[in-house]
Amino acid sequence: MKAAEIRAMTDAEALEKLAALRKELAKERATIASGTRPEKPLKIRNIRRDIARILTILNERKKKEKKGLRSKTKEVKE
Length: 78
Hints:
Layout: H1 3-8, H2 11-33, H3 42-77
Helix pairs in contact: 2-3
């Protein structure tokens, strides 16, 4: 999943995708813990990176929103 795809999502869609990826990661880790070899070992790395991308973009949006609110409050105080 590319960052542009995530940026095109709404916050709600991104959070749904995040939950789905976390479930998938747990499932993959459970297969390893049970002693079986995963079919695609790189899948875990890719899932972890997708989770990190989603969290990064959500945090960027929060910071941008917070920054916008802060500048508006300064204008009101003056």
